[in-house]
Amino acid sequence: MLVSDYMSSTPVTVQQEDNYDLAFEIMEERNMHHLPVVDKQNQVVGIVTRRDLQLAARYFKEAPVEIAEVMHTPVFTTSASAPLASAAKQMNDNRIGCLPVIGDDAHVAGMLTETDLFRALTDLLNS
Hints:
- By secondary structure, this protein is an alpha+beta fold.
- The chain contains four helices and five strands.
- The protein has a three-stranded mixed β-sheet. A two-stranded antiparallel sheet has the order 4-5.
- α1 crosses α2 (50-60).
- The longest helix is centred in the last third of the chain and has 13 residues, at 114-126.
């Protein structure tokens, strides 16, 4: 099993200069928990979680704050051709809930989340 078998292949990203409330709106609308943060060259520079944004909202209130101020760095990533088991181990070892999947062009090609891993486990148990 490869990462490409279970990753979401329509990644949604935010720019590091975007206001954190934009990321929160995207997560709410799409029922997401993680968003990769990219720079102007569309390279991953961070990751922001729903929890990060909730904490930011409590701390910064209505003040305009760039996502760069609340994102996590460095970002652990994987490739679509990586074995799913190694990606799962990387997530477990680093206690993270997702991995941006980086394509050959060094841009975000997808996301692998805990939910994707549960889906893989279900498929494995049902086979």
